[in-house]
Write a structure and sequence with these properties.
The structure is a homodimer.
Chain A (H helix, E strand, L loop, with lengths): L16 H32 L3 H27 L4 H5 L3 H10 L5 H23 L4 H10 L5 H15 L3 H26 L1 H13 L4 H22 L4
Helix pairs in contact in A: 1-2, 1-4, 1-5, 1-9, 2-6, 4-8, 5-7, 5-8, 5-10
Chain lengths: ~240, ~240
């Protein structure tokens, strides 16, 4: 994906330091809890794995997510912030999302990981354009693909090739995932003013207008459609 | 626990190389699959964690188990053995054990990890006395406590102090765990001749007799009783 919103990203925090700091703590807290639940989810998916090799592969990806979580926790501690307190506000939305989208089998788990992480990663990358250098470097580092994408695409495509009729069910599943993700994202945006302000304010700071916000969502949607196509599914 | 079975451990593999090699592959395969399921189980338990700090602590322990698994897998590969094939024979017994002893809450998960891993660790340490130096060093390395024992004891004791009536239920749970573990261990011993021969043969090699086998089981039982007492539970 691209973060071509135009202009150079700021190398220093924007004007309102207190608000910016709150937003960064929110962002890192949300990401940290996201990585911790990604760890759990991949470990859960490992239980569905059809072979012990697949199980070990999922476990390795879960460990990579945990290591990302640990990096974010260290950063929060370095900022003098309690990681637990930073993560707390995002627990309800992330737990609700995962409760409502518990995969019922191995393939649903893979689609969820690929499609869900894809949207989350795209979103955080867009936001990272409005961050100071040091925070942006950290965010991009923890967004690095842990090898899960390739793995999920290979397994899902092979499964559809072997049994084409499952494509319909998995496509429906993909749409449900996006719907639930959007509904939880709206909940977070409504509750976390600083975070919402970072996005809108950061964009305003760089001369972006509402049309740019619209273009960002269009990019997120386009990328989602491409990912579904990569899996061999209609979005 | 102690491995005071007397005499020096062998620094070279015992006489029958082919049988010994089979037994070592079995042992490493069983341990590797045990570590991989320990990873999964701890990650599962993390979902029950009452606080995000406890969740992160469990995740860190799960990662440590995965790293042990990776060490064992590398050793099996170095021996020219497929890790999957080495682990396969032990999947049914380990999966059956975990299916029959799925914890229903956070405390049952902690008791299971402490009591179950304790017995397994004691058993592998006893067996390690009959291994060549290099294999023994690896086995002892992957048996190292990942910090889970201290964590489980602290949490379980505090919970019993706060609500003494749960001790009865958890003591029953501990007894059920041991019963299931023994029944699965018997199944493995009946099916894996080389592994059973390593234990009995290794002991014979060192002049141990049936009385020594009996003493080993007595040590395992004693240590289990001590662990239950450490938790504040009757065995």
């Amino acid at each position: 994906m691209t973060t071509d919103a135009g202009g150079e990203p700021p190398s220093d925090p924007p004007d309102d330091d207190a608000g910016y700091r709150l937003a960064v703590v929110d962002l890192l807290g949300a990401l940290a809890y996201g990585e911790l639940t990604a760890f759990e989810r991949l470990a859960d998916d490992a239980a569905f794995a059809p072979t012990v090799g697949d199980k070990a592969a999922l476990a390795a990806m879960a460990v990579a997510e945990y290591n990302h979580f640990a990096l974010l926790r260290t950063r929060l501690e370095d900022m003098g912030v309690s990681p637990e307190e930073a993560m707390d506000p995002f627990m309800p939305a992330l737990e609700a999302f995962h409760e409502r989208t518990a995969p019922s089998d191995w393939l649903e788990g893979l689609v969820k990981a690929y499609v869900g992480d894809g949207i989350a990663t795209d979103f955080y990358r867009e936001v990272s354009a409005y961050l100071d250098d040091s925070t942006r470097t950290l965010v991009l580092q923890v967004l690095e693909d842990t090898g899960h994408s390739r793995f999920a695409v290979d397994r899902v495509r092979a499964a559809i090739e072997a049994e084409p009729r499952i494509a319909g069910r998995l496509a429906l599943w993909g749409r449900r995932l996006v719907g639930e993700a959007l509904s939880q994202a709206q909940r977070v945006a409504a509750e976390r003013d600083a975070l919402a302000a970072l996005l809108v304010g950061g964009m305003a700071h760089r001369g972006a207008d509402l049309a740019e916000v619209g273009r960002m969502f269009a990019r997120l949607t386009d990328n989602h459609t491409k990912r579904m196509a990569t899996l061999g599914l209609s979005a």
